[in-house]
Amino acid sequence: MAAAPPRPGGFVLFLHGSGGSGDESRAQVAPYFAAPGLAASVRLSFPTAPTAPIACYGDAVITAWFGIAEVPITAKTVRDEKEVLKAVDYVHELLDKEIASGTSPSDIFVCGLSQGGALAIASVLLYPKTLGGCVVFSGSVPLSKSFADKVSPEARKTPVLWFHGMADGLVLFEAGHAGCAFLEELGVTCEFKAYPTLGHSMIDEELQYFQQWILNRLGISGATEPSRPSSSSQHKDLQ
């Protein structure tokens, strides 16, 4: 089969947190790329995780990319890595499909909030190609350091932008800080932005920076103020 012709523009895959949905993430993030000049240049995808009973919530059935061992998430929280890797395989299938359609890996960004951010960084670290970037909002690295040997030289070239609130009570600031430190040990470029009073939510200041960071890497100018219902996007993520 002949290769697809090159597909211009960027692709942003955004993964929601546990208990959330793709539609909720779309409502928060899409307005930042809705200007006429951007909508045609940046494609957005907001998949929804499957539902599963989560033990630490009394087996309540919620959307989740993988199991949740405990809350709050700390720098020492251990996940079921088989579940994490199953979710990573799903993300890799999405990335492979996008690349097969003609999008350059350098124009692809994997992003996420909370558990979605954890899945985003795990997926990027284990992907065999250098991507445009990874953006983590209030997330953590869900893999042990033993996985360092599985991170290819190509994956280590993917830049990472990490946002975390110092008042986050669900994914503690220490988890985010330790995650970025681990990335730097791998030789990954990680820009870490801390917000002293921010809890477990996304705010306009983060999303504006996120927008510009992606557009800069795509070589797109003309970022504009988004049309949004309020100045911040509060998130009720369970993890």
Task: Describe this structure as you would to a colleague.
The protein has helices at 22-29, 36-39, 81-100, 115-125, 173-185, 204-218, and strands at residues 10-15, 42-45, 51-54, 60-63, 108-113, 133-137, 160-165, 190-195, 202-203, 232-233. By secondary structure, the protein is an alpha/beta fold. The strands form 3 sheets. It has a 6-stranded parallel β-sheet with strand order 2-1-5-6-7-8, sandwiched between helices. A hairpin with a 5-residue loop joins strand 3 (51-54) and strand 4 (60-63). The protein starts with 9 loop residues before the first strand and ends in a 6-residue tail after the last strand. 43% of the residues are buried. Belongs to the AB hydrolase superfamily. AB hydrolase 2 family.
Give the SSE map.
Layout: E1 10-15, H1 22-29, H2 36-39, E2 42-45, E3 51-54, E4 60-63, H3 81-100, E5 108-113, H4 115-125, E6 133-137, E7 160-165, H5 173-185, E8 190-195, E9 202-203, H6 204-218, E10 232-233
CATH homologous superfamily annotation: Alpha/Beta hydrolase fold, catalytic domain
Proportion in β-strands: 15-25%
Q: What structural category arises from helix and sheet content?
A: alpha/beta
Shape designation: globular
Low-confidence sequence ranges = 228-236
Separate helix tally? 6
Number of strands: 10
Overall pLDDT metric: 92
Radius of gyration in whole Å, from Cα?
Answer: 17 Å
Describe the strand arrangement of the main beta sheet, using strand numbers: 2-1-5-6-7-8
Q: How many domains comprise the coordinates? A: 1
**Which CATH class is shown?**
Alpha Beta
